């Protein structure tokens, strides 16, 4: 982090200084009292089950030079009083972002935004010193903290923007002020809060509010294509990508190699190049197209775009493919998160594998009243794709079980929770030589299943 003064913090937050020297220098910022270091500014956040203000004195003991506070307690050390510490975090990040002349690409979408973020960062890193969002730091706390990691050596930044409700992307994009914004697609994630896919589209398009220049959009998405002629977006340079050769960037010669990956040819005007990706799934070609478009906008040469796409590695628990030699099992761990679209895409990958196929599927969250039908449809989809064993775990997944049973009445299992499933493993449910897919929303903790299988059935 570039050093800034307490006076800068006061200006950014319009806060009130209490017992503090405004010339002191801050060398790091955190909201986590466990990560306090000398010269740090501690910003206490009030959550549902905790209050960071309880750790202010501890923060000073660990070396914090200053703390924000929204509570006028009798602190004896350096305090800046603000009305809302979370808003102040964003205000400081907005100020800090303005200190740098750096290329920023922001990404949102219902499915694939993290993978697309990783591919874009891989492409840009072929030419620029690149910073990217780590883990799930894509919300109103995580994005500011990512911005604080920018320093003088960085030339490009790739920021993922997540949301659950209206206004959240608007808030993030007005902090980041991206040069380029990518929307991967509009699915049904968070439909519980946003009411419809039209509502999701509106929320995703908030990303344009802070956009400086170029919007990169998926023309294959039936919702995004509706904004093609919208006058509200006429001021932006728009680049469309998809499988149709009428788009600015398009793909053909797609060769699906199952769990071994996928190959294709990427076109832009009269230029084209072949890519071979080790991460499986047809959806990967659209992610690669988005990365190619961003790379081109930022001046990365085609040969380096190709290299960046081919050497990309997905973030953990996203299409992680490993072997369990003792049982001759191939494990596809895609358990980081799930929604109906991404789950069906993972089922497609499993269906392309050789030998016996087993899908361990769990609840998909934030689907509201649509949840029963969407889970039912996923189960039916798995059965129609000739998945040999379909294991459904979780309260909502009872609907998935019913959907699968509507197509086939053998090889379909239901368990109320992971513990029940673990008991069933003892009865040799898994045969040698099969491929096993693990997929559910993050809150289902299906990584436990992957760990259990790797540790020995």
In short:
31% of the residues lie in helices and 23% in strands. The protein is an alpha/beta fold. The longest helix is centred in the middle third of the chain and has 15 residues, at 283-297.
Kindly describe this structure.
By secondary structure, the protein is of the alpha/beta class. It has three domains: 4-84, Udp-n-acetylmuramoylalanyl-d-glutamate--2,6- Diaminopimelate Ligase, Chain: A, domain 1, CATH 3.40.1390.10; 100-310, Mur-like, catalytic domain (UDP-N-acetylmuramoyl-L-alanine:D-glutamate ligase, 3-Layer(aba) Sandwich); 320-455, Mur ligase, C-terminal domain (Protein-Tyrosine Phosphatase, Chain A). The protein contains 15 helices and 22 strands. It has helices spanning 6-13, 56-61, 85-97, 113-124, 142-147, 168-176, 191-194, 197-204, 283-297, 302-310, 340-351, 371-384, 397-405, 418-425, 447-455; strands spanning 4-5, 16-18, 25-26, 28-30, 40-42, 64-69, 79-81, 103-108, 130-132, 156-160, 180-183, 214-218, 237-242, 249-256, 262-268, 271-277, 320-324, 329-333, 357-362, 389-393, 412-415, 435-439. It has a nine-stranded mixed sheet with strand order 9-10-8-11-12-13-14-15-16, with helices on both faces. Helix 4 (113-124) packs across helix 9 (283-297) and helix 4 packs across helix 10. The longest helix has 15 residues, at 283-297. It is globular. The two termini are 46 Å apart. The model has no long low-confidence stretch (mean pLDDT 93).
């Amino acid at each position: 982090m570039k050093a800034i003064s307490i006076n800068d913090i006061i200006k950014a937050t319009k806060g009130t200084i209490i017992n503090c020297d405004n010339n002191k220098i801050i060398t790091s910022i955190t909201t986590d009292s466990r990560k306090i270091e000398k010269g740090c500014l501690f910003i206490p956040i009030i959550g549902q089950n905790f209050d960071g203000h309880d750790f202010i004195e501890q923060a000073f003991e660990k070396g914090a030079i200053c703390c924000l506070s929204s509570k006028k307690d009798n602190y004896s050390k350096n305090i800046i009083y603000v009305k809302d510490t979370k808003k102040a975090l964003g205000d400081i990040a907005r100020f800090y972002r303005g200190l740098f002349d750096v290329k920023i690409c922001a990404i949102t979408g219902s499915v694939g935004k993290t993978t697309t973020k990783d591919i874009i960062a891989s492409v840009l890193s072929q030419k620029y010193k690149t910073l990217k969002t780590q883990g799930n730091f894509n919300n109103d706390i995580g994005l500011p903290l990512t911005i604080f990691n920018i320093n003088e050596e960085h030339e490009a930044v790739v920021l993922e923007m997540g949301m659950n409700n209206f206004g959240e992307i608007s808030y993030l994009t007005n902090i980041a002020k991206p040069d380029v914004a990518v929307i991967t697609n509009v699915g049904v994630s968070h439909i519980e809060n946003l009411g419809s896919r039209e509502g999701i589209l509106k929320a995703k398009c908030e990303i344009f509010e802070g956009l400086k220049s170029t919007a990169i959009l998926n023309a294959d998405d039936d919702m995004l294509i509706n904004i093609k002629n919208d006058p509200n977006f006429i001021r932006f340079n728009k680049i469309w990508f998809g499988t149709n050769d009428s788009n600015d960037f398009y793909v053909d010669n797609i060769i699906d190699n199952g769990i071994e990956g996928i190959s294709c040819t990427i076109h832009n005007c009269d230029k084209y190049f072949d890519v071979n990706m080790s991460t499986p799934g047809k959806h990967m070609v659209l992610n690669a197209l988005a990365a190619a478009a961003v790379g081109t906008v930022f001046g990365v040469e085609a040969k380096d775009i190709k290299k960046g796409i081919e050497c990309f590695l997905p973030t953990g628990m996203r299409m992680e493919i490993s072997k369990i030699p003792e049982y001759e099992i191939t494990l596809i761990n895609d358990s980081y998160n799930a929604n109906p679209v991404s789950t069906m895409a993972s089922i497609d990958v499993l269906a392309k594998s050789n030998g016996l196929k087993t899908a361990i599927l769990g609840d998909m969250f934030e689907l509201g009243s649509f949840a029963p039908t969407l889970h039912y449809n996923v189960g039916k989809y798995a059965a129609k794709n000739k998945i040999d064993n379909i294991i459904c775990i979780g309260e909502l997944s009872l609907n998935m079980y019913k959907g699968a049973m509507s197509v086939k009445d053998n090889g379909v299992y239901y368990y109320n929770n992971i513990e029940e499933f673990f008991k069933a493993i003892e009865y040799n449910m898994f045969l040698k030589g099969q491929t096993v897919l693990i997929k559910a929303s993050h809150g289902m903790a299906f990584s436990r299943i992957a760990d259990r299988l790797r540790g020995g059935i």
